[in-house]
Amino acid sequence: MRFALFLALAHLKRRPLQTGLALLGIGVGVAVLLAALSLTNGFTDGLVRATLKAYPHLVLFSFGEELPPLLPHPEVEQSAPFAATKALLVRPAEGGRGAGVDFATLVGLGEGGEALYPELGLKLEPGGIYLGAALVQTLGVYPGDTLLAMSATQERVRLRVLGSFRTGNFLLDSGYAFVDLKTVEALAGLKAQGYQVRLKDPWRAKEVGEALAGTRFFPQAWQDTQRTLLEQLSLQKRVLGILIFLIVAVAALGVANLLVLKVVEKTPEIALLRAMGASRLTVGLVFALEGAVLGLLGVALGNLMGYLLCLYLSLRPVGLPGELYFLTHLPVEMRLTDFLQVSGASLLATFLASLLPLARAFRVRPGVVLR
Questions:
Q1: Where is the MacB-like periplasmic core domain (predicted)?
Q2: Which residue, 195, 222, 249, sits at the end of a domain?
Q3: What is the mean pLDDT of residues 321-330?
């Protein structure tokens, strides 16, 4: 083993340029892959946080007409009764402005409802309404304007615009509005349908929902209602990872090419070693160790370069147009699992690429070569 490692290191030192290029190829591939995954993590986390600005972590629908009390739970930060309905919002034409009309989901919140969405700064009051930013543009309203809300049952309620909110999720900003619970009761004849719940950890919504539901509530976690979004983001990350991993695969083929050339160049030396008593395993181990050393050093270099690149992007983030995206910059979120998975996959690719020169070294016949 020591003899094989000595020869492997000697071979790598003999051609420093080729060795350095092989290491750099693996390192750049690993670094780019890690940076891309970290940016994808940051974008996904940013989109989820934007959605949860105006979307409940957990909804508990009541089975009966009477709303039972909600049991305490250590994960619950805030809860409030709610009722939601679809309504047609109309701003009458006045002062040279044409009428504005659009449909929206009115979410009526009971006592403590403002604390469910602290980032929106809601201050609900009877007869008031907060509109999504895109909905404000569609209706052409300003704070203090009066809207007419009409339900499917032709009930009408006048509402005063108290303000607007912006989450960055266009579906919420263009189709959601918040009112007090009594407004929804008057408009649609609905009593409280259940509770909206804010949690300390939104990702535990399913677990907490099952603990609170019992036989009194039907739980609905945000992961269930936003499943399509989460699946799209997960698919995007997998596809991006596969595409960029091809860079690592190309670098691994470069390692295979380097080792094949070494086997061809060292064929007389291999034959001489075999004639002096070295086994096939010893000879093959030399080139296997060369591939292992290149893979380990390349992956280590790639991890270092990837970490520094992610650190740079977090300190000097890539700017995004605020009018087009909900984020003004592209955030970075490094995860240890990504570093471990990328390192393992890159080492495996390098090892598999080393099998070709290894097989070629095994086939060298010392008698034919020396003759």
A1: 19-213
A2: 222
A3: 57
